[in-house]
Amino acid sequence: MTVLYEDRLQAGELLATEVAIGLEGVELPIRVYALPRGGIPVAFPIAQRLHCPLEVLAAKKIALPNNPELALGAITPDGTTAWAKSSFSKRKNSQELEQAREEAYQSAIALQEQFNPHCLQLAVENTIVIIVDDGIATGMTMMTAIKALRKQEPAQIWVAAPVAPPEMKEKIEQNSDRAIILETPDPFFNVGRFYKKFSQVSTEEAITYLD
């Protein structure tokens, strides 16, 4: 196992340097969005480096109860949904799928409501939006976040993450204006294996980066 980062904060500091370099000469306003909860400590150094507020966008994985690890899609609190087409096309029980979507939707709303009081919720129209997570595996939550924020008509959407599989970086590049992914190890397996410390981020801890 190859450890690439000490923890999420250190990964965020490294990412902040690359993002700042990429934004040299850019005059548009910047918005930094973290995918909670793990993306918040990573996004914190980026927002600090860019002197802009840190926003949060919840995106929850849609999965069936008998296979909770298989992401069939993801959904954000405004109802924006992205499906993993290869999995979705094979599902014949639409009622079961709709129930899973509704549960994920309610979960996304509840998660977002925990963070909204701690965010400015600024408009993103004609800005550069940078969406940050602690890593990208299946890409479902990130793709849904891109789709949701695109509706708000930013000038550009960037994606920043410390680690992702090579094929996922290509997919993110195709669906965003710029992808800053520090490492693309192969084989990948999961995000946590590339961190020395990768404990779950509590809501209380996450909020400390927002206040």
TrEMBL record:
UniProt entry tagged with the keyword Glycosyltransferase: yes
KW Glycoprotein (keyword) present: no
Keyword set, alphabetical order: Glycosyltransferase, Transferase
SUPFAM superfamilies in UniProt: PRTase-like
Phosphoribosyltransferase domain ranges (all copies): 32-178
One Pfam family in the UniProt entry: Pribosyltran
Highest rank taxon of the organism: Bacteria
Molecular functions (GO terms): glycosyltransferase activity
Protein name from the UniProt record: Phosphoribosyltransferase
Species, as recorded: Euhalothece natronophila Z-M001
